[in-house]
Amino acid sequence: MAQQAHRPREQWATRAGFILAAIGSAIGLGNIWRFPAVTYENGGGAFLLPYLVALVTAGIPLLILEYTIGRRYRASPPAAFHQLARPAEALGWWQVAICFVIATYYAVILAWAVRYVGFSAGQDWGDDPETFLFADFLELADEPGDVSAFVPGVAVPLIAVWIVVLAILAMGVRRGIEQANKIFIPLLVIFFTILVIRALTLDGAADGLDALFSPDWGELNNGSVWVAAYGQIFFSLSIGFGIMITYASYLRRRSDLTGSALVAGFANSSFEILAGIGVFATLGFMAAQAGVGVDEVSGSGLGLAFVAFPQVISEMPAGWLFGLLFFGSLVVAGLSSLISIVQVIVSAVQDRTGLGRTRSVLLVGGVTGVVSVLLFSTDGGLYFLDAADHFINQYGIALAALAVVITVSWLLRRLPALQADADATSAVRLGMWWRICLGIITPLVLGWMMIDSLVNEFDENYEGYPTSFLVYSGWAVAAGAILLGVLLTLIPWRRRPAAGAEAAPVPGAPSTPDEGKRP
């Protein structure tokens, strides 16, 4: 492609705009349906202690690292890592590949939530929400890997979701992403606050909260509980797959990095706790109505959102309003996260090809959207989605984060230089704790998570799926993301970085991007 004239890199209009976008990326579907279940299964209120430790020793340090890399090199993950060290560029493309995979199926869940906003008005799922979801709505095939029919009821809202996301992205960072999140985040807080207040007034709500927050202090001696805490932090903060590097690349040179990371990290965790209160207050009501314990109605993921909650909505007064608020919250949270995921791919394409924003958005959106619709709007779509989500989370995001931390801290030894860069403009200065967290604690925890996951994986197939199905829909996705990252690194850059993309020192920081590298 022809080279493009140097173009100044876009910037956030305000620091608040960046923070809202970062919070919007972090607060997604997993906050609402994953955190409550993980907390309940790992010691209840006692789980909040390892969760807080994980936030302080891994989540926020990783956020600061990604913010610093993004702002310093003012580029997408591949271009930023290329400036750190040319071989490290593969890490950036690996993250882009992960974002591509996640975007294809994340949009599908968002499309389901859109449909369920409408279903809530008339409680269309009837007396059996489970049969309605799998048989009537998704028209799920009998066996994993079977694809025999196209499901228009999923395809139509999915296409609509992609149109909205690409329209916002095409408007740019300042007029599109920033303005959208200024609407989405307050709207999400309003929706969910009303939902929580309503849930707390239901019969049995206190029993649900008691089940969630009653501490089992003995669980703190269980290593798997601490691993679960770190896993929740990694998966909920949008770290490890390039989003925060990309968003931070649009920051101004004098932006406060550590302060922004603290605000985004604690805001995300606060919403997770709020989500836990709303979800378990509702499950307490469901248990009271059924005359059973909360443990018999608790769950997570799709079953919680699209089976358990519709059942609750059918049984509670003014359930239609509760349904609108709940599924509306899923839509808003999902949109802000999906926008950030696709932006990583758009930014990488812009940096590599020199294409303008609109053309890059259309190219990325066209390819990603077509794959999303063709693969996940079929009667076998749910099986593909489940396997891809499991393997890309377990062996994509977490492993990519481990590779980044080891490369930056151990191989390139860049933490001191990056710390000086962050400290130069941040109100809260980083100390030795930051380098210890990233150089020792985070790699050890991530490494243990990988070993633990692999041991469990080889002991028993995920969800009992056939080995042949997992090989081409799960392992192939995880391995393919890694391979694609390596192959894209071998393609030489055909153009210089756009104006503003090259690293420029800030006062008090190392004078050149290469300073601090080993010979």
Brief rundown of the structure:
Its main location: membrane. The chain has helices at residues 15-26, 29-33, 35-41, 48-73, 77-84, 89-122, 129-137, 152-170, 173-200, 205-213, 223-236, 243-248, 257-290, 301-315, 319-353, 357-376, 381-411, 415-423, 432-459, 467-489.
Q: Which class best fits the helix and strand makeup? A: mainly alpha
Rg, nearest Å: 22 Å
SS field, number of helical segments: 20
Major beta sheet summary: none
State the helical fraction: over 70%
Give the CATH topology.
Amino acid/polyamine transporter I
The H-level CATH homologous superfamily, spelled out, is Amino acid/polyamine transporter I
Shape: globular
Description:
By secondary structure, the protein is mainly α. The chain has one domain: Amino acid/polyamine transporter I. Helices cover 72% and strands 0% of the residues. The protein has 20 helices and no strands. The chain has helices spanning 15-26, 29-33, 35-41, 48-73, 77-84, 89-122, 129-137, 152-170, 173-200, 205-213, 223-236, 243-248, 257-290, 301-315, 319-353, 357-376, 381-411, 415-423, 432-459, 467-489. The protein is globular. The model is unreliable at 1-5 and 495-519 (pLDDT under 50). One of its GO terms (cellular component) is membrane. Pfam families: SNF. InterPro entries: Na/ntran_symport, SNS_sf. It comes from Streptomyces aidingensis.
